[in-house]
Design the sequence.
């Protein structure tokens, strides 16, 4: 694609990077067919190619973001399905990230939306605040239908209440910064990103990860000073807040790397993993951080990658029932990190029957805060995903991302993290919901 940026514009490193990306696009439109919002709306402006044109026009003309541009870019899930499809290697993720921060800098949203976004950005990355907010939401949840009005704000408020779990699990005994020693001979030493929202919504995921890895001879460190990865605010265009979260994590893990050393930094929420793997790019312009961030990004692994590398095997005699597991591939895992085989191979090795989900490349509508900010499209994608999953008649759903798990919960099937099933098969406890599924499991179709 031809671009017409001036040399003065290209002196800006963000614009220079976006220009490089724009020039790679050959407008072939292959990406439109696999874009969830284009599939639903059929509108070119809700396709990757349409959005690329909107971004090009806005940036080239140094124009403040218009309501039209904001509407169509806000509808983008950042699912990155378009990156998997694109034959020209267009790095849409970096382009949309830049466009989102440009929007934040040049567009004034209506005040209810500004307030809601500020609230989400303040609460979601802070486990203590998030827990308090969820406790309040659980009380208000039964009244979600009574929230009046047809405005976007009313719809978002209803979505927030609907997504809040009816009850919260208690705090994990394993929560907090500490070292979890390896059992037996130490094979590796890794840092685990404990996360923010996940440790409140589903502490069992970190517990299963720590149990499984330490059992396999891996020392697991939850580093002091590490916290939210910054993905949630990054996708809201809050560039500075995202960089600040990235710096804090890079500093915390660098202390470990330069101390006892790390073989890997393990992430068990794939949305966070995609962002941590991008730290080198995010902090590339900061001499104090660039090298350390690139080193951290190079060490980042999804938990499934490490388990495959370690040669995960179930414990002899601890095999769970042969449940039919619909594997829901989180976009951040399959498109963002290109990890497609490992989780399924691990589940199969554990003794589960792994079912491919039709239209598995399409997003479930979770996408960070998307299901709160775009509840209508997110609801359509959720219904489509659940129907596709149900068509395979599974006993349960497994996924590697807490966002997807929350989005698909309440759809008639238990939803668990892949690692919880692997831990069960390796001698850990059964996830509470799955115990129930095992008892209620119908016989597989002939
Ligand atoms: S598939 Fe790639 S090159 Fe083709 S229109 Fe989409 S982004 Fe551009
Ligand atoms: S990231 Fe997803 S929603 Fe956004 S343009 Fe690409 S395919 Fe479409």
Sequence:
């Amino acid at each position: 694609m031809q671009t017409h940026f001036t040399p003065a514009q290209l002196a800006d490193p963000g614009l220079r990077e976006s220009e490089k990306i724009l020039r790679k696009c050959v407008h072939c439109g292959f990406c439109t067919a696999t874009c969830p919002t284009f599939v639903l709306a059929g509108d070119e402006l809700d396709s990757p190619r349409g959005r690329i044109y909107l971004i090009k026009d806005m940036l080239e003309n140094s124009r403040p973001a218009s309501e039209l541009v904001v509407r169509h870019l806000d509808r983008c899930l950042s699912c990155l399905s378009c990156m998997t499809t694109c034959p020209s290697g267009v790095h849409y993720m970096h382009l949309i990230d830049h466009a989102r921060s440009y929007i934040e800098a040049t567009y004034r949203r209506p005040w209810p939306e500004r307030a809601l976004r500020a609230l989400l950005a303040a609460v979601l990355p802070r486990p203590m605040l998030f827990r308090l907010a969820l406790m309040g939401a659980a009380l208000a949840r039964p009244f979600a239908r009574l929230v009046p009005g047809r405005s976007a704000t009313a719809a978002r408020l209803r979505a927030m209440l609907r997504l809040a779990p009816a009850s919260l699990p208690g705090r994990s005994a394993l929560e907090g910064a500490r070292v979890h020693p390896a059992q037996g001979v130490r094979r590796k030493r890794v840092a685990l990103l404990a996360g923010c929202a996940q440790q409140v919504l589903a502490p069992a995921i970190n517990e299963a990860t720590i149990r499984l890895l330490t059992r396999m001879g891996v020392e697991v460190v939850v580093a002091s000073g590490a916290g939210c990865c910054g993905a949630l605010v990054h996708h809201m265009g809050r560039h500075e807040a995202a960089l600040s979260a990235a710096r804090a994590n890079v500093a915390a893990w660098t202390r470990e790397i330069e101390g006892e050393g790390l073989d890997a930094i393990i992430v068990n929420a794939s949305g966070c993993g995609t962002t941590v793997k991008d730290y080198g790019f995010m902090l590339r312009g900061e001499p104090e951080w660039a090298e350390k961030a690139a080193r951290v990004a190079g060490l980042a692994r999804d938990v499934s990658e490490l388990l495959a590398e370690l040669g995960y095997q179930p414990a002899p005699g601890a095999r769970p029932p042969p449940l039919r597991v619909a594997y829901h591939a989180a976009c951040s895992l399959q498109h963002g990190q290109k990890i497609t085989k490992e989780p399924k191979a691990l589940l199969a090795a554990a003794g589960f029957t792994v079912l491919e989900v039709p239209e598995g490349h399409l997003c479930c509508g979770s996408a960070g805060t998307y299901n709160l900010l775009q509840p209508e499209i997110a609801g359509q994608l959720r219904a489509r995903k659940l129907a596709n999953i149900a068509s395979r008649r599974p006993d349960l759903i497994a996924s590697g991302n807490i966002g997807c798990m929350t989005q698909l919960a309440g759809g008639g099937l238990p939803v668990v993290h892949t690692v919880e099933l692997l831990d069960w098969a390796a001698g850990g406890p059964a996830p509470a919901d799955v115990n129930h599924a095992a008892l209620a499991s119908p016989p597989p179709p002939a």
